């Protein structure tokens, strides 16, 4: 069958070697089916013919590209009955692939299938999606190549209740990686629609995070870091390191609160929806504001539910889960930030790394975290209020900056960071920017920021030497590893 021919009606197609399927679209075992393996293999080979923008520019490659696209289409058609909730998307996906091939493999345009893909409408625990797009992957491949994934929704009952209550976030989708092509054999832990190759930018209606990958690398990194630093973990924190499901659900709770925070609060700017170039430490503060809001809200939830229990009031099973995960979110924010984020990636404008440095130094300077006799210790009873205080400081910065010019806000943000983390000795910002920069355009301010404006402390330099191999080993990790 050629690409231009109409595909068969899906309701009448059988899947050879069909995996076990339940009626609600869970498609158990689909990752081992010959149809998926054929699709994955075709997408992988097609990547070798594509250039950075996703096109296949060499006419000599078009015949093979046509064969590979035909394999992808046939595989999608065969697998589609297992994903009835994605029927509209998979129909549009086949049409997009046909048009791309028919028009000569130029820069791919998958807007129609992207608009039809609506995973936020199917937040049912265990339901699966077949996802195929030409796209780049954040913290992964920068090229818009055809990638294929099988993913599974993580949506336990207590998260559904949180989302239906005070923490509504209709765009948030929590996923587990089942199988994937090379773009996700990387550090990428998100699936965002804006990464897809398309002719125009629609209104985005969803964003997904792979909590299984977040949880798996957290468990591996924090387990190693706790051993290296001789940190005595509380029992519940230690349990999360041995229980992938527990860690995944903790990260779902963290991320659903974090994600909604980007658009809430007294915001002097809208940093991730409006493309603008800013000093990287501003992104550090924005990410920390969202993480610390998740921490603060978890403290609030934990204390409220525990007070009800202490008063003899019965709470539901979902509330019991909220109570347990609220405590664990606090450990997750702390340890992921100070152990993994602080040491992951290069030292070139590493805003996530700076956030980890900021949290560690804040707690150390307030006597909540101690590095003494080559051992790390935390005063657990003082930890919640100390972390919340850092969140309050960032919130106050934002509130005050609503009345400030942009560059004055930048200077105030720098003052907050350098009051905790020591800048590079050659920093122009720390010495005081000259008048020609202060009188000039914002670009001059940003250009004056060093790539590593806030170098690692001696503690983190030493820890990095011991942790580098562990962090590197988490590339491509999934929950089953």
Question: Can you characterise this structure?
Answer:
It is a single chain. This protein is α+β, with helices and mostly antiparallel strands and 481 residues long. It has two domains: 190 residues, no CATH class; 243 residues, no CATH class. A five-stranded mixed β-sheet has the order 1-2-3-5-4. A two-stranded antiparallel sheet has the order 6-7. Helix 9 packs across helix 11. It is globular, with a radius of gyration of 24 Å. The two termini are 39 Å apart.
Layout of SSEs?
Blueprint: H1 34-49, H2 62-79, H3 87-102, H4 111-116, E1 128-135, E2 145-153, H5 157-164, E3 172-180, E4 190-191, E5 207-210, H6 211-229, H7 235-240, H8 244-261, H9 280-310, H10 317-340, H11 351-365, E6 369-372, E7 375-378, H12 383-401, H13 406-418, H14 428-431, H15 435-438, H16 442-447, H17 458-472
Parallel strand pairs: 3-5
Antiparallel strand pairs: 1-2, 2-3, 4-5, 6-7
């Amino acid at each position: 069958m050629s690409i231009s021919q109409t595909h068969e009606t899906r309701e009448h197609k059988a899947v050879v070697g069909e995996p076990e399927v339940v009626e609600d679209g869970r498609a158990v075992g689909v990752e081992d089916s010959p149809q998926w393996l054929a699709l994955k293999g075709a997408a992988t080979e097609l990547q070798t013919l594509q250039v950075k923008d996703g096109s296949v520019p060499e006419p000599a490659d078009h015949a093979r590209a046509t064969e590979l696209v035909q394999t992808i289409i046939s595989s999608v058609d065969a697998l589609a009955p297992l994903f009835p909730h994605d029927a509209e998307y998979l129909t549009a996906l086949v049409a997009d692939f046909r048009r791309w091939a028919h028009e000569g493999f130029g820069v791919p345009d998958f807007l129609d299938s992207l608009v039809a893909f609506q995973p936020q409408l199917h937040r049912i625990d265990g339901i699966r999606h077949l996802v195929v797009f030409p796209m780049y992957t954040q913290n992964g491949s920068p090229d818009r190549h055809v990638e294929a994934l099988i993913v599974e929704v993580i949506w336990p009952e207590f998260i559904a209740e949180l989302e239906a209550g005070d923490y509504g976030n209709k765009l948030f989708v929590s996923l587990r990686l089942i199988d994937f092509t090379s773009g996700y054999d990387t550090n990428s832990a998100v699936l965002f629609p804006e990464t897809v190759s398309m002719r125009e930018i629609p209104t985005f209606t969803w964003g997904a995070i792979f909590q299984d990958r977040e949880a798996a690398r957290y468990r591996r990194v924090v387990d190693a870091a706790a051993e290296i630093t001789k940190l005595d973990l509380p029992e519940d924190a230690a349990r999360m390191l041995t229980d992938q499901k527990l860690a995944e659900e903790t990260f779902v709770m963290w991320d659903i609160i974090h994600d909604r925070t980007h658009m809430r609060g007294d915001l002097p700017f809208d940093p991730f929806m409006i493309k603008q170039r800013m000093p990287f430490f501003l992104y550090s503060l924005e990410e920390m504001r969202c993480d610390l809001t998740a921490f603060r809200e978890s403290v609030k939830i934990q204390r409220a539910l525990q007070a009800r229990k202490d008063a003899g009031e019965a709470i539901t099973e979902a509330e019991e889960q909220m109570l347990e995960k609220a405590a664990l979110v606090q450990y997750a924010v702390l340890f992921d930030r100070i152990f993994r984020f602080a040491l992951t990636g290069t030292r070139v404008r590493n805003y996530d790394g700076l956030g980890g440095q900021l949290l560690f130094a804040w707690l150390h300077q307030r006597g909540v975290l101690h590095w003494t006799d080559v051992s790390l210790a935390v005063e657990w009873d003082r930890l919640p209020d100390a972390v919340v205080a850092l969140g309050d400081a960032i919130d106050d910065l934002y509130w005050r900056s609503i009345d400030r010019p942009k560059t004055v806000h930048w200077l105030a943000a720098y003052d907050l960071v350098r009051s905790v983390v020591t800048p590079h000795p050659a920093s122009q910002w720390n010495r005081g920017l000259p008048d020609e920069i202060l009188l000039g355009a914002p670009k001059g301010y940003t250009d004056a920021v060093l790539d590593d404006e806030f170098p690692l402390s001696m503690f983190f330099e030493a820890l990095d030497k011991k942790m580098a191999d562990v962090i590197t080993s988490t590339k491509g990790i999934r929950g089953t590893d």
